[in-house]
Structures are given as structure tokens and as C-alpha cells.
């Protein structure tokens, strides 16, 4: 039994699904997921999501019952629910856990939140359009796709940012919004260690004026409003940029390929896939790959697989609630129609899907997720999950969940449990299952 096969599935993915065998060549198995992606998921387009929300709003404003589907829910709420369930179902059943984890990592890095009503019906499209196509492509391409997507432009208020000296600014007496410019610099690219100033934020915000959305007339989505763009030269980190949409994209690519960006991304990636306190040699290796390939995320993912530190200490990363719920669902081969158990578990364990409270996304260290109440919620959810699953061989579940990584104490306690439900609760409540 190869312990590395289990490390590959747990550390880099969501764990094995009941009935799956650990890969005989773990590194090749992970690398194949980078080279040969599964067909991408489908779902609501931005235009479809916008239309559903507008129809729902119009009905409510006229004090009419909004359009409803076969389940009795409004068409909008039904579509939103289906988007969330599809997200869970793909991760519950995927044979490419590593690739899905990369999607989730970058989705969190470029956080948008459905706490904002206007974003709710387009957040699934944001993942499919701006994040997923680029997880093994160029980081700069992802940065541009994110900054142009209506979900990000709305979330960080750039859709309404107007240059004070632009024709629209002079006419409407409106001004800059710095949110997108600041978060691109602080969170998405350089980080504060990059040495940017408030002046750089303001100049960048001026450059991004006019980057907006169109939701009323086709084509629905990104729209560059030239009349809202602040005229004149802008200087960011000492580099000069002129007017127009192309100059905004040039600035995004400049920041995406800045040396400070490589360092920032290397720390985040190694923290996520290796350890809360990333080993300096691992950070240097990922930083070097990013620098030498000019942000090739496929090459970077392949380098993660070859890091010895990613294999040295199995089960040294604490699972977030989302990882935990998906891993447990996979271990018992939870049927797809029971995906609400997973999305409901994420909600119960204080990590509701696509609902990070701040633009810096969900935290990625054990200290942020461990508290007596949080652990009790996990055990309560696990007990509920175990009580609703079909009968199964608890030994097979333990084999899928942890294999040789299960502690002897856990195996003994499961053998002495009074019921299958109690045994599975002990498994999912064990310290080793909480880790990856």
C-alpha cells in the first residue's frame, strides 16, 4: 500500500472516493491532471444570470409573484441553488481533485462574494469564465480576465468609478473609486511588501476608470466607457501609462509580472499546499519557477508536485470546512442528489460557498479554523452525514478516507463503536481526518 498515493489524493485533492484505489504512480497521476483537464462545467452565463435577476426584481417591484420553477422556488433562487449544488457535485465526484483544488485556490485568491445581490447570479460564471480557463495558463491572463469580469467590477465598485476630469465626471460630478486598484495591488499582485504607495493606488484607479459593465442592452458583460475614463498620463511604480483601455490592461500585466508578485504568490501557494509556515526553500523554488516562466501556472503546479516538502509531513495542513465536507462526502460516496448535505455543511461550519466576508478571501491556516465551537460543529455535521448515508463497509470507508494514515487509536475506537453511524463519526471526527 503506497502512502504517497494517499498523500497525493489528500494533500493535493479532496481525498479518494469510496471504491477508488490510490494511484500507483502518484506524481504522474497529479501531473496528468495538469496536462489533460476534464471537460469544463457548464452553467448560467452572465447574460442569463442578469436576465433572471432583472425579471425577479421587476416582479417584486410590481408586487407580483416572481416567476417560479417546478420546485416552487423562484426561477432566480432555483438557478442560484443549482449553481451551488453543481459546484459541490463536481468536487464530490471528480477524478481530478488537484485541478479542482487549484480552481478553488485561485477563486479564493481573487475573491468575490455573493453577499452582494448583484453578484449572486454571475458568480458561477465568474469561476467558469475568469478563473478555470487560466489555472494552468499565464497568471497575467488570469489577472486581466478577473479585472474585466462583471463580478469583480461590481464587487470592488469599479463599475461606477468615474474620472473627475472625464466628460462623464464633469457632467455628473462623480469621482474615483479606489477599491479595485487597491486590491489588485495589495491582494492580487504585489502585496504590501511590493512597496507601492497611496499615490500608486490613486494613479492606478485613474487608469481603470471606464472599466465598467453593461447589463441593459446586449452584449451583456464588460464595457469600456471611454467617456468615464480619466484623461492624462498616469505613473505607477515609476512606469508611465497613457489613456485608454489597452493601457489599463498593460498596467495589469506589468503588475502581474512584477518580482514582488512572484514572491507573494509563492508564499500563498506553499502555505496552501505545504504548510501554514511555508518552508523557505519551498517558497524559493516556487518563486523561481514563476519568475523563470513569467507566471506559467501550469509549470508552477508541476513544480508543487515535485517539492519534497509537500510529501515529507502528511496531514500537516488543517482542512477548511469546505475541504472537510467534500472529503467526507467522497469517503462514503455520497450520491450526487445529496449534495445539499455538503453545501449545508459548509454553511453550518461557517464557510458558506462563495461568501467570504472580505476581499482577502477565506483564511488558510489552522489557527483561523480551530475553536471548540468549530470542532463541535464538524462532529455534529459528521454525525448527521453518517446517519443519512446508505449502509456501507466502515473498513472500506476508512480505507478510502485515510488508508495507512489512520492512527491505530482511531481504528480501534471504530471497531468498538456501537453502530456504523458512531464508527463513521469517530472516523470523521478524528484528528487525522481533520488534516490533509
How many beta-strand segments? 4
Low-pLDDT sequence parts: none
Kindly state the mean pLDDT as a whole number? 96
Globally, the shape reads globular
N→C terminal distance: 18 Å
Oligomer: single chain
Number of separate structural domains: 3
Q: Which percent band covers the strand fraction?
A: under 5%
Q: State the helical fraction.
A: 40-55%
Largest sheet: 2 strands, antiparallel
Task: Determine the structural class based on helices, strands and strand pairing.
Answer: mainly alpha
Q: Count every helix, treating DSSP H or I runs of 4 or more residues as helices.
A: 22
Your description of this structure?
The longest helix is centred in the N-terminal third of the chain and has 19 residues, at 75-93. The model has no long low-confidence stretch (mean pLDDT 96). The chain folds into 3 domains: 1-134 and 318-436, no CATH class; 138-257, no CATH class; 258-312. The strands form 2 sheets. A two-stranded antiparallel ribbon has the order 1-2. It has a two-stranded antiparallel sheet with strand order 3-4. It is mostly helical and 436 residues long. Helix 2 (26-35) runs antiparallel to helix 15, helix 13 packs across helix 14 (280-293) and helix 21 (408-416) packs antiparallel against helix 22 (420-428). The two termini are 18 Å apart. It has helices spanning 3-11, 26-35, 46-61, 75-93, 97-109, 123-131, 139-148, 150-155, 167-172, 179-188, 198-207, 245-256, 259-273, 280-293, 297-306, 309-312, 321-331, 340-348, 372-388, 394-401, 408-416, 420-428; strands spanning 211-214, 221-224, 234-236, 239-241.
Amino acid at each position: 500500500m503506497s502512502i504517497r498515493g494517499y498523500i497525493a489524493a489528500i494533500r493535493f485533492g479532496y481525498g479518494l472516493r469510496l471504491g477508488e484505489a490510490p494511484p500507483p504512480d502518484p506524481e504522474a497521476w497529479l501531473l496528468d491532471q495538469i496536462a489533460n483537464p476534464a471537460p469544463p462545467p457548464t452553467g448560467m452565463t452572465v447574460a442569463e444570470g442578469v436576465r433572471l435577476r432583472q425579471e425577479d426584481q421587476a416582479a417584486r417591484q410590481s408586487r407580483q409573484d416572481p416567476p417560479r420553477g417546478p420546485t416552487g422556488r423562484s426561477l432566480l433562487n432555483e438557478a442560484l441553488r443549482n449553481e451551488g449544488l453543481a459546484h459541490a457535485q463536481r468536487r464530490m465526484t471528480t477524478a481530478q481533485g488537484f485541478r479542482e483544488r487549484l480552481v478553488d485556490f485561485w477563486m479564493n485568491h481573487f475573491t468575490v462574494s455573493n453577499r452582494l445581490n448583484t453578484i449572486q447570479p454571475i458568480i458561477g460564471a465568474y469561476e467558469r469564465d475568469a478563473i478555470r480557463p487560466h489555472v494552468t495558463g499565464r497568471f497575467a491572463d488570469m489577472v486581466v480576465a478577473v479585472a474585466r469580469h462583471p463580478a469583480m467590477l461590481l464587487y470592488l465598485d469599479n463599475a461606477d468609478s468615474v474620472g473627475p476630469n472625464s466628460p462623464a465626471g464633469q457632467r455628473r460630478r462623480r469621482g474615483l473609486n479606489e477599491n479595485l486598484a487597491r486590491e489588485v495591488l495589495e491582494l492580487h499582485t504585489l502585496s504590501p511588501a511590493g512597496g507601492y504607495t497611496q499615490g500608486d493606488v490613486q494613479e492606478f484607479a485613474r487608469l481603470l476608470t471606464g472599466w465598467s459593465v453593461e447589463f441593459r442592452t446586449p452584449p451583456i458583460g464588460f464595457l469600456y466607457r471611454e467617456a468615464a475614463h480619466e484623461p492624462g498620463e498616469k505613473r505607477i511604480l515609476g512606469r508611465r501609462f497613457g489613456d485608454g483601455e489597452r493601457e489599463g490592461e498593460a498596467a495589469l500585466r506589468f503588475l502581474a509580472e512584477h518580482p514582488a508578485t512572484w514572491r507573494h504568490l509563492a508564499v500563498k501557494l506553499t502555505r496552501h499546499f505545504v504548510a501554514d509556515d511555508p518552508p523557505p526553500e519551498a517558497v524559493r523554488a516556487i518563486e523561481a519557477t514563476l519568475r523563470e516562466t513569467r507566471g506559467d501556472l501550469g509549470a508552477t503546479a508541476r513544480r508543487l508536485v515535485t517539492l519534497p516538502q509537500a510529501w515529507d509531513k502528511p496531514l500537516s495542513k488543517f482542512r477548511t470546512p469546505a475541504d472537510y465536507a467534500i472529503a467526507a462526502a467522497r469517503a462514503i460516496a455520497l450520491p450526487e442528489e445529496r449534495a445539499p448535505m455538503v453545501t449545508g455543511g459548509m454553511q453550518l461550519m461557517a464557510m458558506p460557498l462563495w461568501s467570504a466576508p472580505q476581499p482577502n478571501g477565506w483564511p488558510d491556516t489552522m489557527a483561523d479554523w480551530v475553536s471548540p465551537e468549530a470542532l463541535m460543529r464538524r462532529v455534529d455535521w459528521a454525525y448527521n452525514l453518517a446517519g443519512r448515508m446508505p449502509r456501507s463497509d466502515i473498513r472500506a470507508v476508512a480505507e478510502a478516507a485515510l488508508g495507512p494514515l489512520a492512527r491505530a487509536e482511531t481504528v480501534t475506537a471504530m471497531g468498538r463503536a456501537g453502530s456504523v453511524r458512531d464508527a463513521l463519526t469517530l472516523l470523521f471526527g478524528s484528528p487525522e481526518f481533520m488534516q490533509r
